[in-house]
Design a protein that fits this description.
The chain is an all-alpha fold. 80% of the residues lie in helices and 0% in strands. It has one domain. Helix 1 packs antiparallel against helix 9 and helix 2 crosses helix 9.
Length: 287
Amino acid sequence: MQESTKGTLAAVAAFSLWAILPAFWKTMEGIPILETLAHRMLWSFLILVTILLIQNKLSTTIRTTGSLKIWSIHTLSATCLMGNWLIYVWATQNDRILEGALGYYINPFLYILLGSIFLGEKHSRLQMSAIAVAAAGVALQFPAVQGIPWAAFGLASTFAAYGIIRKKSPLGSFDGLTLETCIMLVPALIYISITHQHNQAFGNDTLSTCLLIATGAATIAPLLFFARATKSISLTQLGILQFIAPTGQLAVGWLVYHEPMPTLRLLSFALIWLAVAIYTFSLRKQA
């Protein structure tokens, strides 16, 4: 099998896992959201450190993450990531999966916009047109949901900020994520130790314990596939494939959990799909 094919399969696996993850978070509705977040941070860190130990790379990672500048950058990025994880689980468990999907649909367009404003990146007219069409689609969400889709904006903005901050770091994706989960470990352990007695720190029953431990695998598995994909396929192809995730989330929320899809909301997503098509065409044209 060619390397590019392996990379494509890894990307499809990553985005497909992200697409169906709302169903996993739904199974944890009986567990407090902050408890879920704390265990997600704890077990993600333990899995990443275990992988580094198996690969005999832990000491190298520790040496590369030793400067104050790197710790400062990743403290900011870890804060954005914690906010993103918290909003996503909250939205999923409060019947706002469609709103979460909207957030990840508009995230690439927010990257383009913020890149133009803060990083001086140049973008084609097609890409700026895609932003305009996506903005029109988002605007239709306001009357569709009879309010402001705060969860969508929260997810898109925290992840876009995370991406921009991470561009300032010299660390690779795996080492950077390990450092971020290490930083997250402090509030996670504080929360677990304060809010629970010792014998309840890992769930009140066997099922809760298993679900809490599984949050680490649910977080890290798609990220490992994603990291594998970035080494083998172009960013253009990766940018196109990333829309698998919100499309799957949309299908899960609408068809599995029967979240409402009024006409205006459907029209909103239609405009966003048009923006995705324009954006995809612009990427292929650039390639």
